[in-house]
């Protein structure tokens, strides 16, 4: 589950702000339990436990299902989230000016992919899944989700800086997951990123997520399919390349041809990767973030 700092995530924070509910989550992490079992374990009344269970359900941290038992139908609660990431507001760099652009995920200029693979717009699949030839379909420009097991997508990014403006930091934001037929919340994949032919570094994505529906994933998309990704940020400065604030490589701006009119950004799952778990890239209309890939150019003006 991925959260942000907004009122949309407040119900989850409120659900976690209770010692009793934390105890319930810990118990359910060991095994599914009914109200009576939880009440006995925590030495509380069933009525109190029921109120806590309702709040955890509303936060989509647990799910309660009806199953047949010896004494009739039982309501069994189970934990459905094993990890929560919190995205804080983007860091502001007041000393620099900034220009940004969003690039739709379907606007790649080169590709080489292997199944499982496919593309879809917010309305339907583009061509047939698991047939790489449809990555050249003219409708690929409308793609809002793209997935493949091994290979790469490559994008040409126009450099918006003008004469007399010096790049100080390049930030690349995107929503991404690994790739598994339907989905698998624990499915690591080594995803490598390149800029202008230089290797920025490799990050291991932990899974392909469907524990809850993506905020913007269209209703026709099946629940069992990948629902959302993790929102990630690559920052390339004069000091190196960072991924969500952690060092990814020593590659710095001075190592790149950053003054070129077009920058080339590649997302790849290499054939010699330890974890070939594929990748899924989310744009507007899918996942938890209503945006395409975003490129932010922080710059200073030369005197």
Q: Would you write up a description of this structure?
A:
The chain has 303 residues and is mainly beta. The chain contains 4 helices and 19 strands. Helix 1 (10-16) runs antiparallel to helix 4. The mean pLDDT is 93.
Write the layout of secondary structure elements.
Elements: E1 2-4, H1 10-16, H2 19-28, E2 33-34, H3 35-42, H4 46-58, E3 62-69, E4 72-79, E5 85-87, E6 97-103, E7 110-114, E8 118-120, E9 145-148, E10 150-158, E11 165-177, E12 189-195, E13 198-205, E14 230-237, E15 240-243, E16 246-249, E17 262-269, E18 279-282, E19 293-301
Parallel strand pairs: 1-5
Antiparallel strand pairs: 2-4, 3-4, 6-19, 7-10, 8-9, 9-18, 10-17, 11-14, 11-18, 11-19, 12-13, 12-17, 14-15, 15-16
Question: Characteristics of this structure?
Answer:
303 residues; mainly beta; Arc Repressor Mutant, subunit A; 2 domains; five-stranded antiparallel sheet; 19 strands; WH-like_DNA-bd_sf; WH_DNA-bd_sf; transcription
CATH class value of the largest domain: Mainly Beta
Overall 3D shape: globular
Count every beta strand, where a strand is a DSSP E run of 2 or more residues: 19
CATH topology of the largest domain: Jelly Rolls
Helix count from the secondary structure assignment: 4
* Secondary-structure element order, N to C: EHHEHHEEEEEEEEEEEEEEEEE
Low-confidence stretches: none
The proportion of residues in beta strands is: 35-45%
Q: What percentage of residues falls in helices of 4 or more residues?
A: 10-25%
Largest sheet: 9 strands, antiparallel
The appropriate CATH architecture of the largest domain is: Sandwich
| Mean pLDDT score | 93
Q: Mind telling me the CATH superfamily name of the largest domain?
A: Galactose-binding domain-like
The whole-angstrom Rg is 22 Å
Number of structurally distinct domains: 2
Given helix and strand content, the structural type is: mainly beta
Distance between the termini: 47 Å
């Amino acid at each position: 589950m991925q959260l942000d700092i907004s009122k949309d995530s407040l119900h989850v924070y409120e659900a976690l702000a209770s010692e009793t509910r934390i105890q319930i989550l810990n118990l359910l992490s060991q095994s599914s339990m009914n109200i009576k079992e939880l009440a006995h374990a925590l030495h509380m009344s069933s009525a109190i436990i029921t109120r806590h269970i309702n709040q955890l359900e509303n936060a989509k941290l647990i799910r309660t299902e009806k199953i047949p038992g010896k004494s009739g139908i039982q309501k069994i609660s189970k934990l459905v989230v094993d990890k929560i990431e919190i995205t804080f507001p983007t860091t502001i760099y007041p000393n620099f000016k900034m220009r940004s652009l969003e690039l739709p995920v379907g606007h790649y200029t080169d590709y080489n992919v292997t199944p499982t693979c496919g593309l879809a717009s917010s309305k339907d699949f583009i061509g047939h899944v698991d047939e790489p030839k449809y990555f050249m379909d003219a409708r690929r420009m409308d793609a809002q989700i793209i997935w493949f097991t091994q290979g790469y997508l490559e994008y040409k990014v126009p450099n918006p800086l003008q004469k007399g403006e010096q790049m100080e930091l390049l930030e690349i934001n995107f929503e991404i997951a690994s790739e598994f037929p339907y989905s698998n919340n624990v499915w690591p994949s080594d995803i490598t990123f390149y800029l202008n032919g230089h290797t920025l570094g490799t990050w291991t994505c932990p899974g392909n997520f469907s524990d809850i529906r993506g905020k913007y994933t269209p209703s026709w998309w099946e629940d069992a399919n990948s629902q959302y990704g993790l929102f990630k940020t690559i920052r390339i400065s004069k000091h190196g390349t960072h991924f969500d604030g952690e060092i990814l490589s020593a590659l710095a701006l001075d190592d790149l041809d950053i003054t070129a009119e077009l920058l080339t950004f590649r997302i790849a799952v290499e054939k010699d990767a330890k974890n070939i778990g594929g990748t899924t890239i989310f744009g507007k209309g899918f996942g938890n973030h209503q945006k395409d890939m975003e490129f932010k150019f922080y710059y200073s003006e030369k005197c």
